[in-house]
Predict the 3D structure of the following.
Amino acid sequence: MGHMSDQPARWTQATVYPDMWADPDDDPRNSEGTGPDGELATLQGFLTDYRLTLRMKCEGLDAEQLARRSVPPSTMSLLGLVRHLAMVERDWRNWISDDEPLPRLYGRRDADFDEAVADQALVDAAYADLEREQAATDAALAEHPDLGERLGKDRTSVRELMVHRVEEYARHCGHADLLRECVDGRVGQ
């Protein structure tokens, strides 16, 4: 005996592989040829792709859908992830600086998730925050191309920070996969 469910049906826009987000020819993360040469270029490539994946997981959703906490009891939402990663990008600059820490982007702890509400102005601000903080962190790290250089009060290596950045985005893109699927059923890498 079946029952009504408010769970969305799984779907994808892809036609070539039924478990993909988009067909290979339409996926902006796909590039032809060999991968980049060198460790720094490889790390930057993975970071770029994960950043793009996060944006793709949010595409086509309205403010309510982006703010929906779709995996209870978690307080995570796609909008919360965008805000969280903006905050984390800012904090990474604290790791490499000897200066006083930059102020928290959203105030109190967990405000990045807790205050991610369905308001288009807040959505627009979150995307602007993310772009600004990513650009600022990228610019700060561009001044330190030696992956072995140690920076900041804790003498963190550039390599460790770069790997941590990739790891943070990869982890949260996994969360975004589940959040998005619960919102409207869309699946894919």
About this structure: The first strand starts at residue 150 and ends at 151.
